[in-house]
TrEMBL record:
GO molecular function: dioxygenase activity
Domain Chitin-binding type-3: 231-277
Record's protein name: Dioxygenase
Keywords for the protein's UniProt record, in alphabetical order: Dioxygenase, Hydrolase, Oxidoreductase
Record field: compositional bias (Low complexity): 215-228
One Pfam family it belongs to: Dioxygenase_C
Annotated SUPFAM superfamilies: Aromatic compound dioxygenase (SSF49482), Carbohydrate binding domain (SSF51055)
Disordered as annotated region, ranges: 215-236
Origin superkingdom: Bacteria
SMART domains (alphabetical): ChtBD3 (SM00495)
UniProt signal peptide: none
Lineage summary: Bacteria, Bacillati, Actinomycetota, Actinomycetes, Streptosporangiales
InterPro entries: CBM5/12 (IPR003610), CBM_sf_5/12 (IPR036573), Intradiol_dOase_C (IPR000627), Intradiol_dOase_core (IPR015889), Intradiol_RC_Dioxygenase (IPR050770)
Length: 278
């Protein structure tokens, strides 16, 4: 495998690169060997102690747009819906849960991932290493991909936009423990460290998102009843494909990503799914 570059410096707790590489060879979890300092706590663990969860921090490195400016050089809307991003590189899985502030699992959260390939390049023509998925009824997700390559100026990272139905988009990034550039990347945030362990020839990472959603999660079951209120052709329960257009509240919207509409995903509320065109 092509291991994550762990650097040559002494690790906190006296673990050397050599020790870590040896650990990788025998498949031991790096997070355990590197001590608690390198072990990012998961929201599901923190919740046991009680009290509200801290939301996952926002993180933006200017290679993706703000919410209002959806066409950025590296983020591309309309990524394919898929949980596996195929391509050559060190296999990596990222899995976990999406919670609200009260640790309630959030179903049907849109998670849109994008990352560099093994050489540190983004595909700005096609959709390599881009894909979106939705959390299941338990709030769980799983991404199968490769370890992203490094590119100038940044530490190793994976981009993601997370959006619960009818809620704002969280744009953030996930990081790898033990990366030398974590110390020099000004955008890097230790609260966004994944737990990473070796798994055969690849890496297995976990991360729990916490979205700024109060109380009980929205209903996860699609409603077949047409929406009432503002009016238009948009209907909960209908399946839309990218490119479809609907009207809602007197405006026209174009579908960016195929999905089955549900209450809470009215076009003005989900800019990741609908673009207003008139
Ligand atoms: Fe990036």
């Amino acid at each position: 495998m092509e291991p994550v570059d762990l650097g040559d410096e002494e690790r906190p707790g006296g673990i050397t690169r050599k020790t870590l590489l040896k650990a990788a060879l025998i498949g031991a979890p790096m997070s355990i060997l590197a001590g608690t300092a390198a072990h990012a706590s998961l929201a599901r663990d923190v919740a046991v102690t009680g009290g509200p969860l801290l939301p996952t921090p926002f993180c933006d490195d200017d290679d993706e747009p703000t919410v209002e400016q959806i066409e950025g050089p590296y983020f591309k809307p309309n990524s394919p819906q898929r949980t596996t991003l195929p391509g050559n590189g060190t296999p990596l899985t990222v899995s976990g849960y999406v919670f609200g502030l009260s640790c309630q699992p959030l179903a049907n959260v849109l998670l849109d991932f994008w990352q560099a390939d093994a050489n540190g390049a983004y595909d700005n023509v096609g959709f390599n290493f881009r894909g979106h998925q939705y959390t299941n009824a338990n709030g769980a997700y799983k991404l199968t991909t490769i370890v992203p390559g490094l590119y100038p100026g940044r530490t190793r990272h994976i981009h993601v936009k997370a959006q619960a139905p009818n809620k704002p988009i969280l744009t953030t990034q996930l990081y790898f423990p033990g990366e030398p550039r974590n110390n020099t990347d000004t955008i890097y945030d230790a609260r966004l460290l994944m737990n990473v362990r070796t798994n055969g020839a690849g890496l297995e990472a976990t991360f729990d998102f916490v979205l700024n959603v109060q109380g009980a999660p929205p209903s996860s079951s699609p409603s077949a009843s047409p929406t009432t209120g503002p009016g238009g052709t948009w209907q909960a329960g209908r399946t839309y494909a990218a490119g479809d257009t609907v009207t809602y509240g007197g405006s026209t919207y174009r579908c960016l990503q195929g999905h089955t509409a549900q209450a809470g995903w009215e076009p003005p509320n989900v800019p990741a799914l609908w673009q207003r065109i008139g």
